[in-house]
Amino acid sequence: MVFRKALVVSGLVFAGSCAAAESDRYNCIASSIQPEAIDLDKPRDQLARQNDLVIPEGARIGSIRILRRPIFDTTDPEQNNALYRTLNALNTPTWESALRAQLVFEQGDVYEPELISESERVLRQREYLTAAWVGVTRVCGDELEVSVLTRDTWTLFPSVGVSRSGGENTTNFGLSDPNFAGSGKSLGIGYAKDPDRTETSLYFDDPNVLGSHWQAGFSFDERSDGRGRGAYLERPFFSETTNWRFGLSGIDDVREESRYVGAEAIADYRRSHEFFSIDGGWRLAEKDDRQLRLLAGYRYDALVFDRLPDELNLDILPEDRTLSYPWIGFDYRQNRFREMTNLTRLQRVEDVRDGFVWRTELGYSGSGLGATEDRVVLNMDFRDVLHVTQTNYASYTLSQSGTYRLDEDRVENLLGTASVQYFHGGSERWNSWYTKLAFTAAHNLTADQQLLIGGENGLRGYPSEYQQGNRRVLWTLERRYFPDWHPFQLFRVGGVVFTDVGRAWFTDDRNSGPDEGVLKDVGFGMRLASSRIEVQRMLLLDFAFPLDGDDSIDDFQILLRGRSQF
Known about the structure:
Elements: H1 2-26, E1 28-30, H2 43-46, E2 60-69, H3 82-90, H4 96-102, H5 113-124, E3 129-140, E4 143-152, E5 157-165, E6 168-177, E7 186-193, E8 198-206, E9 215-223, E10 226-235, E11 244-261, E12 264-287, E13 290-307, E14 321-334, E15 337-341, E16 349-353, E17 357-365, E18 375-388, E19 392-405, E20 410-424, E21 431-443, E22 451-453, E23 467-469, E24 471-481, E25 491-505, E26 519-530, E27 538-546, E28 557-563
Parallel strand pairs: 2-4
Antiparallel strand pairs: 1-3, 3-4, 5-6, 6-7, 7-8, 8-9, 9-10, 10-11, 11-12, 12-13, 13-14, 14-17, 15-16, 17-18, 18-19, 19-20, 20-21, 21-24, 22-23, 24-25, 25-26, 26-27, 27-28
Pfam families: Omp85
Signal peptide: 1-20
Subcellular location: Membrane
């Protein structure tokens, strides 16, 4: 009898403990911010964060919920029509596995808010997504539910385009899909014609090989003046917390190049380029938000130049040169970021670094390794943020590249650039100011290298390659307009009024172009960005009026280009 009572009591205690455990397990607290209520057409809605949840210390990610939205939201009466429903039906949704492969955290990991934010940044960079939001949406004891919200873009798109810059036209057409069959892999074929060449191309890129963080790709180009081949295999620093990287790449490229004087090609030659690189990197130390990485590798970079049959009188032919060198370097950075809107994109969330990145490489290219001369190779790049608030963003860059020839005791192809840029107003208002000042100095450039200005190289009111020199300065001031206008729920429209001032010149007596003074232009333009198709690029149409220059240039220049930024 006593034994039976003991069993009953034990059973009650066990049942009570199980019930308590079940109660704790299902005693979940949901965030008041759920992805179903987020409007991905409104950047500020995407910037909402679940600040009402208290995350227990040491909590783990118990589940990852993927929510995929179609291209068009047919629950919205403005998008519920036959065309938009058809496009939704024809589009293959991005695979859940492709989205999970982009995340820098996994189910079972200890919760780190930085990895949540970083995963969101990675997803926003993908060509096949218009927007992304990642956040903790539920706390169940010491387990968390993380929700990933994305919206697809229409990616299978035949491209037919004409662009004009610096008085020269470029045409292209092709078929590309950066999200082939919803896999997140990129495949494309194309044809392009510009003043220098016609080109047929094929490329493939896989950013997550077999669902991993390895990346691989290749490109194949046939040109009227040569060919192009390229391939790579890489495991990058896919996260700011990644411990190591590895990279392997190669290029075989043959094309005709020109030297310019006053926007005119004065000499053509054939350039053959072979390139091979293998490198690795390791995260050495981290303190607070600062991280140090060690980098090392080997590069083979060979350039061969040949005369063309119809260029028998070419007086300057670049010398063949081969660099073959091991190198070592470091990457020192601050891992701070800020989300802003209307800096360089139209009504899109933009991730900007709020800190510095300093990368330096030092190598030795010796004749014993197959180099044409003994050289020291030194490259450096430094970027830092001067000021950042909700409505202001200012940054500057310093960069330097070049080699030192030991046989001639001189530097060669030394190039240094300093620039500063400032944005004001766009994050909170529908218009903003943007300005940038850049200065570049070159020393002992080889015949295949030129420092140019005009058209695509700045100074939109002048032909491409209008001036050349060993010094270049360019100042740009723009008034940008970002109206919250969304015609047919398909496009974003923006505008700009601008002025450019600059010049390129030689510090000796060489001629820098038809007009050797400071050049100025003014102009206005329109920006058109799709919110549903190929969202990573926008159409730029500028009308620029030169205020200087000789009589050979037009009274105004029309520039029609496709770019990723304003």
